[in-house]
């Protein structure tokens, strides 16, 4: 089980020597307790304590990286069962499957789709993560050809899906130095696949339907010299995946079975409803999700859900406070006050850009809270608005002193006028109504 900071502190030298990089042994213990420091940073720790603390302070789910370069995928290194307890850190990699039995043009089309797909949402670019090549031709040389068609791992991370060691060896000859995921070792072939994974330094997926068998198989591969392992629980249904994935995460977080402390994978195409399988994988601890080629709508839904689940619930996505000119505003353009919650900003931006109305969007720092929440929680105040007007030089941009505030901030209108000297106009509550409001109500 995980240890608390004070329990860890009892095993430290208590010299406050600062050799670990922290001011005190207690500070070091607090970092160890949340997995933000390595026990090896303390040079004076006794061997017995080092062994004990090393086992209980390292992340319960190992960090595994697939691929190389900017688009490599890091999964695992999670600490909690539920995201509200802390947060989830490493979003699952979504890799699109092709078959080596497909024509070359079809393979190229899917690879290009993966390379070029970008969903822009609340200031972030959301992308698919790689390509999975499945061995169905029964021709090792053809498998290697399709791996090469998929970029060979040079541009996109790859998953090599085959049970045949000969086919995998042929594929690894062209892609092995780019760290593809080898999928999957079973009781029958694990010795050969572990040897390949060790030789090329690649992560290895292990597959078994029973958690005890999965743990035993992962242990054998780890003992064979493969440190980076991904677990495939081979579920027969989505309900089965949710149940076994939950049990595996509980065992990992509770450190009751170290051999299950690895990221999970799921083949979403193995189920009747791929979209539902993708959602289950994102919500229930999958590190790698193999998907069939998806429609644009399904891609956007999957990437949006992943972004939502892997956003820290205690830290809303924020934009930088300041003044944002929209549609080339002049000195008589309206000044529109809002908050720095990203979803609010980008929703307003979309409507205003489409309206072609020149204006200034004036973003106040409410620590990422929405308008209604910021008003109710006292984060959006007349003092903040007055100070922000001065800080950002809003008065130097326009010849008028009119400020449009969101409808949900209407209770602050009088206080803002008193604090700023600006006349306040209360705008609509819904961002969709703002262009129409400006067309009919804005006059300088």
Can you walk through the features of this model?
The structure is a single chain. With 444 residues, the chain is an alpha/beta fold. The chain folds into 3 domains: 5-57, Electron transport complex subunit B, putative Fe-S cluster (3-methyladenine DNA Glycosylase II, Chain A, domain 3); 64-309, Dihydropteroate synthase-like (TIM Barrel); 322-441, Rossmann fold (3-Layer(aba) Sandwich). The chain is built from 16 helices and 17 strands. It has helices at residues 5-9, 25-33, 47-57, 104-116, 140-149, 165-175, 190-200, 211-223, 238-253, 274-283, 296-309, 342-355, 371-376, 382-392, 413-420, 434-441; strands spanning 64-66, 73-75, 93-99, 118-121, 124-127, 130-134, 158-161, 181-185, 204-207, 229-232, 264-267, 286-291, 322-326, 335-339, 359-364, 402-405, 423-426. The strands form 4 sheets. An 8-stranded parallel sheet has the order 10-9-8-7-6-3-12-11, covered by helices on one side. A 5-stranded mixed sheet has the order 13-15-14-16-17, sandwiched between helices. Strands 1-2 form a two-stranded antiparallel sheet. Helix 5 links the parallel strand 6 (130-134) and strand 7 (158-161). Helix 5 (140-149) packs parallel to helix 6, helix 6 (165-175) packs parallel to helix 7 and helix 10 (274-283) packs parallel to helix 11. The radius of gyration is 27 Å and the shape is globular. The model has no long low-confidence stretch (mean pLDDT 94).
């Amino acid at each position: 089980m995980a240890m608390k900071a004070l329990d860890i502190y009892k095993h430290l030298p208590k010299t406050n020597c600062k050799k670990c990089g922290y001011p005190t042994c207690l500070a070091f213990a607090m970092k160890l307790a949340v997995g933000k420091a390595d026990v090896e940073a303390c040079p004076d720790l006794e061997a017995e304590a080092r062994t004990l603390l090393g086992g209980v302070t390292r992340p319960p789910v190992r960090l595994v990286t697939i691929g190389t370069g900017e688009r490599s995928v890091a999964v695992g290194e999670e600490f909690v069962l539920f995201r509200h307890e802390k947060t989830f850190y490493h979003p699952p990699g979504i890799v699109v499957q092709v078959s080596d039995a497909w024509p070359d043009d079809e393979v190229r089309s899917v690879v290009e789709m993966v390379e070029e797909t970008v969903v822009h949402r609340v200031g972030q670019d959301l992308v698919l993560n790689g390509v999975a090549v499945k061995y169905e031709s029964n021709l090792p040389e053809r498998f290697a050809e399709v791996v090469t068609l998929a970029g060979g791992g040079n541009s996109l991370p790859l998953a090599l899906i085959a049970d045949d060691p000969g086919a995998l060896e042929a594929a690894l000859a062209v892609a092995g130095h780019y760290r593809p995921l080898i999928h999957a070792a079973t009781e029958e072939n694990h010795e050969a696949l572990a040897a390949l994974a060790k030789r090329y330094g690649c992560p290895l997926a292990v597959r078994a339907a029973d958690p005890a068998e999965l743990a035993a198989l992962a242990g054998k591969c780890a003992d064979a010299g493969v440190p980076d392992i991904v677990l495939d629980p081979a579920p027969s249904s989505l309900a089965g995946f949710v149940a076994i994935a939950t049990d595996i995460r509980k065992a990992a977080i509770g450190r009751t079975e170290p051999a299950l402390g690895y990221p999970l994978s799921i083949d979403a195409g193995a189920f009747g409803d791929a979209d539902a399988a993708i959602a289950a994988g994102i919500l229930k601890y999958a590190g790698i999700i193999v998907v069939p080629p998806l429609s644009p709508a399904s891609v956007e839904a999957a990437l949006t859900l992943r972004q939502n689940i892997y956003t820290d619930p205690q830290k809303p996505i924020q934009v930088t406070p300041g003044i944002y000119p929209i549609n080339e505003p002049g000195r008589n353009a309206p000044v529109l006050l809002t908050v720095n919650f990203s979803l609010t900003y980008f929703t307003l931006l979309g409507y205003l850009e489409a309206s072609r109305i020149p204006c200034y969007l004036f973003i106040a720092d409410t620590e990422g809270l929405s308008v209604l929440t910021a008003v109710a929680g006292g984060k959006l105040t007349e003092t903040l608005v007055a100070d922000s007007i001065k800080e950002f030089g809003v008065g130097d941009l326009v010849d008028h002193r009119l400020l449009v505030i969101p409808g949900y901030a209407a209770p602050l209108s009088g206080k803002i006028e008193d604090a700023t000297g600006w006349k306040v106009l209360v705008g609509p509550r819904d961002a969709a109504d703002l262009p129409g409001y400006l067309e009919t109500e804005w006059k300088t």
